[in-house]
């Protein structure tokens, strides 16, 4: 009877105890050098382990669920999660109420913090695998932004051939992260560089430059207080693009400039693209659209100042309008992307729609989206 | 009486309780965005804070000492260290026996792990401060090493003017990290890029390329087992230098190639330099020499195969032979560097010796060393 209450209490509090686990765990590919834990098995379960001899309660906190870990006679706690979707997930450990990174993993910025990540192997991990192919450079560019009065940073991918063709100029994709993430997302857990290295080697994508900046940009705080104004569009147009066109060998026209983003970044980049069709000819929205979070029918007269009102004009100007979504994404994403697609169809606007099988609002959806989208650019 | 025993026990076990603390703490400059803790005061004390409502014992573990933290009524633990030296230090928290990174800081690789770091402001932080000056690029180059049969990575600093002078070629400094660190040390906590950006802007250093690779390189493990052979010299000469000379606009001769390293890296790079004087004309040893850990008199007949036997020949070939050490470094560093200097003097070999005031075997010594050394290169 006591056990029934305990199980019920655990269930109600969102705590699960994993059972019937397949014992074929291997260390995660994003562990720190030499670290054996965390591990992942063929079901996609995550097994974490940490030495905490004096602790009373240690939990693995992943995918919004806390899993109880169990202590052995040496004070080492071990526990595993339910099977997780393939791809990359942020997670943490909880030691006697302290939420901390797992000391076994490398750290990634997401969910508004630098914290642990885990990689669940996918059948298509080939697309972002590190292979013995020519590798482009990922360059960190620090710059002072006059608009925000702050130092900012972007990462710039240049394809492997860039250094060997000193006269050649390249098209540019501006690629943005999501909310509570930063400019490290795409070159880090997103593997934008590996995806492009592999595509370019296979002749499936045109060699291109990719610029990954930080989507959070605010006017300097005034003494009056209040919430500072978001000025990312202004920074993108007046600071980032001119800097990239100056410091890299770009083809600086709209036909050779694409923009894309995931989630919040999809919303931001759609606005930037539609407000500046003289600057961009390709748009990619990964798990997001600018009508987010609404699922209501879109009023084309008012939405983005009527940018989609003239469907023929949009078709003439945008060479590829691309949307992607994971099949397991929660609302409001399917609803708002669905409402957006309805609008596009009603307006007769051509677009490409991709569904990432069995993935949610996470990086595997976005890696696949970039892999699909990049193949259509600048052709 | 009980308290006396407790204090004695704490003292014996290396646990300290800080007292008489100056209350002018500010968040550390390497905290995660928006995080208020850890903080540092004008004495250089570190104050850490973490919510751990169910914990019995939380400690701040820094500089080889564990400091007890104290819990408040909300389950938040706070505690501070004794004053620390200026500059960067690795540290961790200990929650009921679990050694974990502090969730308040960004993470750095050192002490053989990705973990927390803290920055104690220094009077000369100006040398590595992020300023509104032209910023060079820090580029991540992934490559497959045939020698080690593994993927490796280096970071390459190119000065701000590099992109704007497409015909100009540059000298190269190969700059190595210490033991239990990796290629992220110099572009991360070492701030090699900022130090050079500031020096180049002030016309105190020649614009140069800096290559920061990983000093750990082993032959692939054979089935026979045993410890794999260290082959960093082979990787440096046959893979890294040719790759850099191919992919970057270098001046590929000995007069335009320098090598330096810290601690283990000083030892490694001295061997590489002296074994390959046809490749390098500048050497920098930061807190290390190849006679480490010995303080014994050096036998010039046998040391590094007699590389220092002919002092005049060394003087003719090496344009700058540079050594640096912190005044607070523990043995065996002062002893072995001292024995090495005695040998140089006996052989009549010219060298520059720098002492970093009031710093130990840590990054502030090495930032200052790079700042001094870089000013003497390629002139």
Give me some keywords for this one.
globular; Immunoglobulin-like; 7 helices; AB_hydrolase_fold (chains A, B); signal (chains A, B); seven-stranded mixed beta sheet; 22% helix; homodimer; Rossmann fold; 2 domains; disordered N terminus; alpha/beta; Ig-like_fold (chains A, B); eight-stranded mixed beta sheet; 27% strand; 379 residues
Task: Give the helices and strands, then pairings.
Two copies of one chain form a homodimer.
Chain A (H helix, E strand, L loop, with lengths): L1 H11 L2 E2 L9 E2 L11 E2 L5 E6 L6 E5 L2 E4 L1 E2 L4 E5 L6 E9 L2 E3 L6 E4 L2 E8 L16 E9 L4 E9 L13 E5 L15 H10 L7 E4 L19 H16 L9 E6 L1 H12 L6 E5 L24 H7 L2 E7 L6 H14 L5 E5 L6 H12 L5
Parallel strand pairs in A: 1-6, 15-16, 15-17, 17-18, 18-19, 19-20
Antiparallel strand pairs in A: 2-3, 3-4, 4-8, 5-6, 5-9, 7-8, 9-10, 9-12, 11-12, 13-14, 14-16
Helix pairs in contact in A: 2-7
Describe this structure as you would to a colleague:
The structure is a homodimer of 379-residue chains. With 379 residues, chain A is α/β, with parallel strands linked by helices. Chain A has two domains: 15-121, Immunoglobulin-like, CATH 2.60.40.10; 126-374, Rossmann fold (3-Layer(aba) Sandwich). Helix content of chain A is 22%, strand content 27%. The first copy, chain A, has helices spanning 2-12, 192-201, 232-247, 264-275, 311-317, 333-346, 363-374, and strands at 15-16, 26-27, 39-40, 46-51, 58-62, 65-68, 70-71, 76-80, 87-95, 98-100, 107-110, 113-120, 137-145, 150-158, 172-176, 209-212, 257-262, 282-286, 320-326, 352-356. In chain A, helix 2 runs parallel beside helix 7. The termini of chain A are far apart. Chains A and B meet through strand 10, strand 12 and strand 13 of A and strand 10, strand 12 and strand 13 of B. Strand 13 (137-145) of chain A pairs antiparallel with strand 13 of chain B.
């Amino acid at each position: 009877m006591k056990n029934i209450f305990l199980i019920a209490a655990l269930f109600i509090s969102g705590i699960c105890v994993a059972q019937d686990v397949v014992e074929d765990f291997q260390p995660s590919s994003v562990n720190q050098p030499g670290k054996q834990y965390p591990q992942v098995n063929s079901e996609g379960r995550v097994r974490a382990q940490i030495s905490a001899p004096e602790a009373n309660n240690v939990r693995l906190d992943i995918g919004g669920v806390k899993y109880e870990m169990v202590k052995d006679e040496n004070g080492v706690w071990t526990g595993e999660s339910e099977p997780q979707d393939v791809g990359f997930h942020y997670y943490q450990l909880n030691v006697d109420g302290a939420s901390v990174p797992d000391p076994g993993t490398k750290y990634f910025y997401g969910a508004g913090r630098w914290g642990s990540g885990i990689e669940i192997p996918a059948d298509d991990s080939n697309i972002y695998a590190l292979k013995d192919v020519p590798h482009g450079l990922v360059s960190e560019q620090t710059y002072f932004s006059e608009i925000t009065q702050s130092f900012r940073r972007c990462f710039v991918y240049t394809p492997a051939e860039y250094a060997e063709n000193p006269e050649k100029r390249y098209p540019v994709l501006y690629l943005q992260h999501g909310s509570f993430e930063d400019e490290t997302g795409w070159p880090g857990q997103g593997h934008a560089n590996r995806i492009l290295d592999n595509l370019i080697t296979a002749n499936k994508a045109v060699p291109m430059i990719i610029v990954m900046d930080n989507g959070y940009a605010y006017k300097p705080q005034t003494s009056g207080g209040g919430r500072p104004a978001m000025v990312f569009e202004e920074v993108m147009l007046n600071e980032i693009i001119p800097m990239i066109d100056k410091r890299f060998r770009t083809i600086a026209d709209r036909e050779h400039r694409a923009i894309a983003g995931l989630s919040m970044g999809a919303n931001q980049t759609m606005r930037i693209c539609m407000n500046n069709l003289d600057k961009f000819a390709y748009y990619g929205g990964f798990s997001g659209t600018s009508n987010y979070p609404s699922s209501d029918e879109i009023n084309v007269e008012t939405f983005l100042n009527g940018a989609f009102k003239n469907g023929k004009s949009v078709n003439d100007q945008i060479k590829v309008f691309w949307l992607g979504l994971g099949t397991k994404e929660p609302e409001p994403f399917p609803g708002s992307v669905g409402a957006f697609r309805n609008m596009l169809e009603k307006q007769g606007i051509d677009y490409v729609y991709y569904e990432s099988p069995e993935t949610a609002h996470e990086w595997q959806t976005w890696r696949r989206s970039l892999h699909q989208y990049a193949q259509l650019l600048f052709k």
